Amino acid sequence: MKLTGLTLILLVGSLLLFNVPAWSDSKGKKDKEEDARVTDLVKDAKVTIDQAIKTAMEKSPGTIVEAELEKKHGKTVWEVEVVGADGNVTEVHIDADSGEVIDTEMKKDEKKKEGKKGKK
After folding, report:
1. Which of 26, 31, 56, 99 could form a disulfide with 92, with the two C-beta atoms 3.0–4.6 Å apart?
2. Residue 105: partners with Cβ closer than 8 Å, 6 or more residues away
């Protein structure tokens, strides 16, 4: 009886031991791909995150909540989210090569939409 229990424990332990590296390898591969993508974006960007934030604040005053380097329409772009005094969030898209503002976009507040639907 003790031998069967010990064998079962060793079998389960071995399965876990040999499967864990497979899980971590796939995650590691995804992390490496993401790192390579980010590295490529940074190489393309002449404008730093600090410069992008300053430009976004000049265009849309408020509190910066996020700044992200992205590829949009074949261009490397800083997407900076700003919360204004009115509580609305504006995305400011800045060309990461020239530093020029491409456009601004008001993000719609999903909570406000749901509140309006409930009142009808």
Report:
1. 56
2. 90, 91, 93
What is residue 89's predicted lDDT score, i.e. its pLDDT? 96
Backbone angles phi, psi at 43, to 5 degrees: -60, -35
For the chain, helix, strand, coil in percent to 5 are: 55, 30, 20
Predicted TM-score (pTM) of this structure: 0.64
Sequence-ordered list of residues with C-beta below 8 angstroms from that of 77, at least 6 positions apart, any chain: 69, 70, 71, 93, 94, 95, 96, 102
Buried b (16+ CB within 10 A) or exposed e, 101-111: bbeeeeeeeee
Question: Is 11 in contact with 3 (CB distance < 8 Å)?
Answer: no
Which token pair is 100? 């020029």
